[in-house]
Amino acid sequence: MGYCKFLTVILFLFPFLQFSYLTEAQNGDPSAQTEVFCYYGSWATYRPGIAQFEVEYINASLCTHIVYSFMGLRDGVIVSLDEYNDYEENWGKGALTRFANFAKTNGLKAILAIGGWNEGSVKYSQMAATEAARNTFADSVVTFVQKYNFDGLDMDWEYPTQRGGTPQDKENFSLLLETLSDKLHAEGLILTVAVCADSDIAKEAYDFKKVAQYADYISLMSFDYHTATSDNVTGLNSPLHAIPEENRNNTKLNVGYSVNQWLGGGVPASKLIVGIPLYGRTYILADPEDHGLGAPINGSGTAGPHTKEPGFLSYYEICMETKWNVERNDAEGYIYAYYDNNWVSYDDVTTVTSKAQFVKEKGLAGTMMWALESEDFRNQCGEGANPLLTAANQVLGRL
Description:
Family: Belongs to the glycosyl hydrolase 18 family.
InterPro entries: Chitinase_II/V-like_cat (IPR011583), Chitinase_insertion_sf (IPR029070), GH (IPR017853), Glyco_hydro18_cat (IPR001223), Glyco_hydro_18_chit_AS (IPR001579), Glycosyl_Hydrlase_18 (IPR050314)
Largest sheet: 8 strands, parallel, barrel
Low-confidence stretches: 5-31
Protein name: Chitinase 2
Radius of gyration: 20 Å
Distance between the termini: 27 Å
CATH topology: TIM Barrel
Keywords: Disulfide bond, Glycosidase, Hydrolase, Signal
Mean pLDDT: 93
CATH architecture: Alpha-Beta Barrel
Structural class: alpha/beta
CATH superfamily: Glycosidases
Order of helices and strands: HEEEHHEHHEHEHHEHEEEEHEEEHEH
Number of helices: 12
Pfam families: Glyco_hydro_18 (PF00704)
Helix content: 25-40%
Strand content: 15-25%
Number of domains: 1
Oligomer: single chain
Strand order of the largest sheet: 1-2-4-5-6-7-8-15
Number of strands: 15
């Protein structure tokens, strides 16, 4: 996933049943299952101590789909970005096989994600530019997904037309999805797409109707609306609604606006997935006494003791810190916290509950959680293991 200020049809063994499910889902059948997509950042296997997260730590009861992140693009085809962790050969850890086996054993769908922020946009733009390259890529995806026994692909190009891309990417992305859809669906496999939630970028990058035509599900990366690298003041990472005191430029940077933009663009509610962050975005306050929303900052917050990424704290790193002064606005549905010159915007059980209720009220397909290794999966804070995931599942009627 990436900074964005800035995935699936349940497969049955027989084509008729798969078609029947699709028809019901697209018609908004209220009895259709609400999905919970759970992303797994495979790099968390290397984190030390309590931060280490292995495939087997996933709580299968809290997800319908688990998404392995990330594969990359090299010479126009899908490749592993970490062969030691992903593969079994050469005494590797075999995480791909373990992940797919875990999904099968627990009745989940295993999706393989390609892209992400660090992969950039340029090589995806180049690959999508010609029919021959799109076909070569799609063929490599089908072969790779089948080899490792996954159920489908999550296309996470961040983002068409952006970060060195070209204006032609918008049309080429649709053509790429069409090719992937044809080849994956012909093999009974799933195609999902992760998209930028920033409304201006989305308008440039995506043909909403065509994305919905070819993708089984569309996951809104509805977080990173505000970060220390994109703003010079504190802001909310993933607000559900616009805040009255926000300036006009920020009124589009919220989950509700993003969802309505895609729905208004002709995307069926039954295909739209809302992203919920299991982490917070952090800032260094310019003045510790000025610690409200919109307070001046001096850059990204200090890296967390376990995740070690400036500007980012996992939920367990936030809830384990006892110094926070927590500010909650129940009327507007947001929370942030501060101490000294540290400031963080994050989601807790209350805000996740509100977002899941929003998903339910809008008749959306479900939620996407980024990412499992950032949740309090060890119950460090006494709310129970995976409190945010649990809250979402309870509201969605899955627990």
